[in-house]
Each structure stands twice: as C-alpha cells, then as structure tokens.
User: What shape does this take?
Amino acid sequence: MSVKGLEQAIQNLNSLSRIMVPTATAQAVNRVAARAISHSTRKVAKEARVDDNRRKGLPVKLVRQRARLRKAKPDRPIASIKINRGNLPAIKLGAARVRLSRRREAKHGKGSVLKVGPYTFRNAFIQQLANGRWQVMRRVGRARYPIDVVKVPLSGPLTEAFMASSSQLIDSDMPKELASALKNQLRLHIKR
Assistant: This one.
C-alpha cells in the first residue's frame, strides 16, 4: 500500500534550504524589534512633560529619531536597538520667538516668555554657545549663578519604556511572528 504524494513530500523535505529557518528567525526578530521601537517611542512622546507647560507630549518624530535598529540577519539572528538616552534640548522643539511681557504682567514680576514651537519657557533666552550651536538657556538660580541649557528629561522614561515594551513584546508577539515567518518561508520553498 502506497501513500499518495509520499514521494513529493520526501522531495520537498530534502529540498528545504538550510537557510530557511535562520531567515524566518531573522524576519521575526526584526519585526518584533521594530514594533518595540514604535510602541516605546509613542509612549514616551505621549507622556513626556515639557518644562513650563501644563501640557504633556512631544512630537513622536523627535523621540523616534533617538532609536536606531541594527537588523538581524540569517547568519546573526540578533537585532540591536541603540538609543540616544540623553535629554532633549529645548531648541529642537521648533522655531523660537520671544513674547514680551505687558505692563500689567510686569507689575506682578513676570518677565518675558520664550516660545519654542508650541511650548513656553519663562525667563529663558536664546544664546549661541562657544561651540557655535544655538541653545535655549536659563539661569539656574540667582543672577550671580551660572546659566544652563533648558532640556526635556527623556533619559528615565526612554529606559523604562524600552525595557518594559521589549520584554513584553518578546513574550507575547515573538511566537506569533516566528510561526508566521516560518509559514511564509515554507510557502516559498515547497512545491505543490
């Protein structure tokens, strides 16, 4: 008694490439890594607080620029995500303009307001540094103390978001992505 299609099945199994499984693994790893970058940057951009504002949020593009993905390959099935965790200088938030204080506000001791994009910074000013870059500056304390660059704190939120989302996505999405990539590779390699 012979099984129908047995010879074809044996031929298909023998013709499978040794590269098929590593390729599928690399594809799955790259998809999960890209998803981790997307989830993390959106979360950080949504929850970031900018200096004087009561409003939360940054443009997602500014946060996403800080993550670089080195993709996995069949011979090296490891994806690396490199993140610039430094704080974001306020000058990157958009075009800067100074809004002068009115007389009524001046009585209450409020100075001019610097607007950078949609964000406001009280008692801040723009200055060119010794390295040639323009930055938004503010005095740290009283007049005799030095000035400092105004920055949006991103170090902690970026670290927490990437650690949490990458481990969660590896647990939840990696098996599904791997199964899908293997099915696709089998579909490409097996003759009917």
Q: What stands out?
A: Strands lie at 67-70, 80-83, 88-89, 96-99, 113-116, 119-122, 124-128, 134-139, 147-149, 151-152.
